[in-house]
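Q: Structure tokens for this one, please.
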Amino acid sequence: MQLALENKELQKLLQEYRDNLLGKISGVKDALGMVVVYNNTVMSADIYASHKLFTEILNKSFDSAATEAIISGGKKENKLTADFAAGWLSANGGKEEVKALENGLELSVKDSKNKSTFETRTQDDKKILRKNFLNTTK
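A: Here is the predicted structure, written as tokens:
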């Protein structure tokens, strides 16, 4: 019973996140991705090659990030700025490892002290289809 109650509470909070934030994200017609911030920390980011690709995965990605934020508890208000998030995204480092995938794609992985960066891109012209950033600090 407790698990079901917790699940109902989680679903209620998740719906509040959807109601408050998802419309703002999906309303930006040229959005290519989202940065996930909670407890005043950039946790991850996903950037896609097109708005269409981004919107196809938006609901699932949003629910996953919001669920993680809810479960982690912590502060409701984040004070990080867009400039801070942009700086976090642009900070590079780490040696690149590239793995060939199917259909002419490759995966590039870079690990640095605070972040892992993953790029799915074409092998021939290195066009990035998806770029994912994960905060690796604990």
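A few notes: The first helix runs from residue 2 to 26. The two ends are 32 Å apart (CA to CA).
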